[in-house]
Design goal:
This protein is of the alpha/beta class. Helix content is about 55%, strand content about 10%. It folds into three domains: about 200 residues, Rossmann fold; about 35 residues, no CATH class; about 120 residues. Helix 6 links the parallel strand 5 and strand 6.
Length: about 375
């Protein structure tokens, strides 16, 4: 990784690079903004730059300090994240952590080192407890293993409970020398105002679709058509884009188009076959299905308006036929009902009710316009 490998965030990168070049480094930084936009990646690159033997505004990437920081194995760099109840982050004391948790932590740290946009998600972990923060206090008071600064990154800092936040506040009130804290969060309102006031605040922006698409092509070697579809579904979140790489989006798109066709021609058996599939699936799959349907209908609306820039380029023939068949349909209304279905899904409304209602509303819009 280098500053150039961080997707977007030009304003935040310039701020941090200037802090290094001018040697005006704060004791604590708060990187806040939407989920999956590279807050941890920024913090890790800043840490690597400070630990680099060249002491420049750019890390060299090849010195021993850079290599250790890149692998997240530098003794002066520590990342803290949520662990299961009863566990605590222990440096040099992993025997206190259950074997299965040790293994999961080790695996996820390796994945984070390979891709700084990977999001930590340890099973049964929902809180950064006080034990982890006490380890920060203990380690920050110790002499550094190597010369240079000690850097602590608290990922998803909003997951600190009240006791953890109180303990961290005490450290920030009297920060140890040559120690820097990075708090990354997508919910800064859940952090105590007294913690926020002791941090330099840096806002991170949602990523543009083009930025995610380019990132996927250059970093993950994804071909343009798939990268563009994933970028639209990711909604500004590169971590989500990475998760979507493992999904069969083409099959989901076929299902979405088949569902629309079944609704449009009034085939109840096929409609309920599609609905039954989602009743047996994870709600996340249903959400992706609806998002893909939304994008497909958006493309149909753009074609209806004579615009050529569509996401589903390989579906152009099907889109043209759909628009021709339902050229009088108010496709903006179909977008509205799918967006409403997505909203109901996120509110945990019963899936069968969502899809049956969606089918009825879509059929009313398409068939009414066709027959009018």
């Amino acid at each position: 990784m280098s500053w150039n490998d961080i997707i977007g965030q030009s304003r935040a990168k310039k701020y941090l690079q200037r802090a290094v070049s001018e040697q005006r480094i704060a004791h604590a930084y708060l990187l806040w903004g939407p989920h999956g936009v590279g807050k941890d990646a920024l913090a890790i690159e800043f840490a690597r730059t400070l630990l680099c033997q060249t002491h420049n505004a750019e890390s060299c990437g090849v010195c021993p300090e850079c290599r250790k920081a890149t692998m997240l194995q530098h003794p002066n760099l520590k990342i803290i994240f949520a662990l299961p109840a009863g566990e605590k982050d222990t440096s040099g004391g992993e025997e206190k952590m259950k074997t299965d948790v040790q293994s999961e932590v080790r695996e996820q740290m390796e994945r984070k080192a390979l891709n700084n946009y990977f999001h930590f998600s340890i099973p049964r972990a929902s809180v950064i407890n006080i034990g982890s923060v006490r380890e920060i206090r203990r380690e920050s008071s110790m002499t550094a293993f190597d010369a240079g600064k000690k850097i602590f990154i608290i990922s998803d800092a909003e997951l600190m409970n009240e006791a953890s936040q109180n303990a961290l506040l005490k450290i920030l009130e009297e920060p140890p020398a040559d120690t820097i804290f990075f708090l990354t969060t997508s919910r800064k309102e859940l952090l105590r105002p007294t913690i926020l006031s002791r941090c330099q605040s840096i806002r991170c922006d949602a990523l543009l679709d083009d930025e995610i698409e380019t990132g996927l092509k250059e970093r993950e070697h994804i071909e343009s058509k798939q990268a563009r579809l994933i970028a639209q579904l990711a909604n500004g979140d590169y971590s989500r884009a990475l998760d979507l790489l493992g999904e069969d989006l083409i099959h989901l798109r076929e299902s979405a188009v088949n569902f629309l066709r079944a609704v449009a021609v009034g085939k109840p058996v096929q409609i309920f076959e599609e609905i039954d599939f989602f009743l047996d699936s994870d709600r996340k799959v249903s959400e992706q299905f609806l998002q893909i349907m939304l994008l497909w209908l958006r493309d149909a609306m753009l074609m209806q308006e004579g615009k050529e820039r569509v996401i589903n380029v390989d579906q152009s023939e099907s889109l043209v036929k759909f628009v021709e068949r339902y050229k009088g349909a108010e496709l903006s209304a179909t977008l509205a009902v799918v967006e409403h279905a997505l909203d109901l899904l996120r509110k945990n409304v019963y899936l069968q009710l969502i899809f049956v209602s969606l089918a009825i509303q879509l059929q009313r819009i398409l068939l009414h316009e066709k027959n009018s």
